[in-house]
Amino acid sequence: MPQHVVVVPYQPAWAEVFRRESEAVKAALGENCLRVYHIGSTAVEGLDAKPIVDLMPVVQRLGAVDARAEALRALGYEYLGEFGIPGRRYLRKGGDERTHQMHIFQAGDTENIVRHLAVRDYLRAHEEARMAYAALKRALAARYPYDIEGYCDGKEAFVRELECRALAECRAALWEEL
């Protein structure tokens, strides 16, 4: 059965779902895990989202994550390796009606780590972008209720532009800080 694409209003409970899951993930990854970030739409208060909590663990050594694959499977995750992004470990939980996704990066991979955090923080800070993104996601979910590829393809141009704006703002803030 294909994944059902559903976009729902923001749920405050997602923060607690993330907190509990991040503790379990930290335990499964052991001392290699430096931090777990809540990313994606469920990390942005007020943003409509697919009810899938995205976690981004940052680890000291990415290779050591592979040795912990069984501990992550014991939490219910499907371990998919890089899954299209070199230097990442991607996992998902919940099958076709997925509940969690995990994107693991090594601490030195600032490009991918900053990209995810910048988009999250930009959406938190910019209501107009958040509302436009929510409207697009609702429209695409209605148009592609059982076509996750169509849904993702429909978001791609918006997300790329959003990422560019978020990274530009992030860089400008760093320059001001320096």
Task: Explain what you see.
This is GrpB family protein. Pfam families: GrpB. It is a single chain. By secondary structure, the protein is of the alpha+beta class. It has a single domain, classed as Beta Polymerase, domain 2, CATH 3.30.460.10. The protein is 51% helix and 17% strand. The protein contains 6 helices and 5 strands; from the N terminus they run H-E-E-H-H-E-E-E-H-H-H. It has helices at 13-29, 62-66, 69-74, 110-125, 127-143, 148-177; strands at 33-39, 53-59, 77-79, 88-93, 100-106. It has a 5-stranded mixed beta sheet with strand order 1-2-5-4-3, with helices on both faces. Helix 4 (110-125) packs across helix 6 and helix 5 (127-143) packs antiparallel against helix 6. It is globular. The protein starts with 12 loop residues before the first helix and ends with a helix. 30% of the residues are buried. The model has no long low-confidence stretch (mean pLDDT 94).
Structural class: alpha+beta
First-last Cα distance: 52 Å
Summarize the helix and strand pattern as letters.
HEEHHEEEHHH
Shape: globular
Unreliable stretches covering 5 or more consecutive residues: none
Number of domains: 1
- Arithmetic mean of pLDDT: 94
The Cα radius of gyration reads: 16 Å
CATH class bucket:
Alpha Beta
Quick summary:
With 178 residues, the chain is an alpha+beta fold. It has helices spanning 13-29, 62-66, 69-74, 110-125, 127-143, 148-177, and strands at residues 33-39, 53-59, 77-79, 88-93, 100-106. This is GrpB family protein.
